[in-house]
Amino acid sequence: MSENEDLMEALREVVAGPVFGPADAGYAAESGGFNLAVTPRPALVVGALDVRDVEAAVRFAAERGLNVAVQSTGHGTAAGRADGALLVNTSRIREISVDAENRTARLGAGCRWGEVLTATSPFGLMPLAGSSPLVGVVGYTLGGGVSPLGRAFGFAADHVRAIELVTADGKTQRVDAGQEPDLFWALRGGDGGLGVVTALEVDLLSVPSLYAGAVFFPGEQAGTVLRAYRDWNASLPEEACTSLALLRLPPDPELPEPLRGRFVVALRFAHPYDAQEGARLLAPMRAVVEPVMDTVGDLPIDALAMIHMDPTDPMPIWEQGDLCDALPDDALDTLIATAGPEAQSAPFMIELRALGGAFARPPRHPSALDGRDAAYILMAVGLPDDPSGPALLKAMRPWLRGEALPNFRGATPVARTPETARRLVGIKTAHDPSGLFR
């Protein structure tokens, strides 16, 4: 029996969940994520059934001199951090407990936003969920959490009440603003490496319905739409939540016919309070160019995913983002030249997510999430090895910060003040002195 087989047998004795090695049939599925271009190569993978499995796996790794990495669910991947480590997959920890009276929910680490919205919507409540129903709760929230309703309510990380995690000693801790406040600060926006999160307690918002959806314009009018969007967005109240994407769509029969195989500009819009007011605010953009398709209207909160209509099937992609403070004419000219209708080659999605509003307000409980004062997130998504994505970001560099929010970074450094960086290092040293967690 090889050394790795010995480790697998020993690990199986202390956990109830399945254990996989590189030669096992389930290894790739258990260690992989949504992006099929990324292939994590952990030494071992354990599919934790519950918190006890996570505790046992962490203690096992510490005793055997292995690092620990985490894969939960959704769009995240543990690639890089997982290579050669013991990877703990928490996707089976799927508890959802709704406290409608106190407007909170306890969510297991394996939950995805679609199932959470299904559980909360009967109460007229919702968390600050992501744009896709398949995005995982933990990675999204602790990486900031930029919701389609974020301009109205802020970052999802700012609505976390408590975090349960297994720390380097193999024990479970519940941390909040009053108990282990340093950990609570660092876990929200600090990019991990402090333990295995097994559950979150989050605020729920009273949003009985939405006026939301997307207006699709012909890609040939991208320049006109982009300029109008910049000027219009600057005039909006914070309750009006917007983003805009340049989309090169495939001829997929599952897409609506007006969008199939087309280059379009998608204006996403959400107003969480009043449909009549939302329609009034959106009217100037609806009048800029004749839309190809318009889906904005009354939207149940459990249909939040219909705003962005993100892909639901895993695929190989390249993605990278950056923060942007303004979009002067020169910036828009460059964006249109590199990704507009005349571009020879371009990523299949370029997205501008408008920040400002509640995103820019200080949180109730301070966190490690910096970059709150930016105006936009610019995100490019394309095929692996396609040079058009890096070329676009290089062309846009004069107007970009060269730093990104944790969930939108790709290869871009995470936005950090020197003070935040120093404090994170101190907390990591205090709580994981041996560097057990990647």
Structure notes:
The protein has helices spanning 3-12, 27-31, 51-64, 113-120, 137-142, 150-153, 181-187, 222-234, 275-286, 329-339, 388-395, 418-431; strands spanning 19-20, 44-47, 68-71, 86-89, 96-99, 104-108, 125-126, 160-166, 172-175, 196-203, 205-206, 210-218, 241-248, 263-271, 293-294, 297-299, 318-324, 349-354, 376-382. It is of the alpha+beta class. The strands form four sheets. Strands 12, 13, 14, 15, 16, 17, 18 and 19 form an eight-stranded antiparallel beta sheet that branches. The protein has a five-stranded antiparallel beta sheet with strand order 5-6-10-8-9. A hairpin with a 5-residue loop joins strand 8 and strand 9. It is globular, with a radius of gyration of 22 Å.
Summarize the structure.
By secondary structure, the chain is of the alpha+beta class.
* SS summary, helix count: 12
Spatial gap, N to C terminus: 28 Å
Radius of gyration (Å): 22 Å
Please, what is the average pLDDT?
94
Tell me the helix content. 25-40%
What's the count of strands? 19
Q: Largest sheet at a glance?
A: 8 strands, antiparallel
Detail the poorly predicted runs.
none
Proportion of strand residues: 15-25%
Structural class: alpha+beta
**Structural shape:** globular
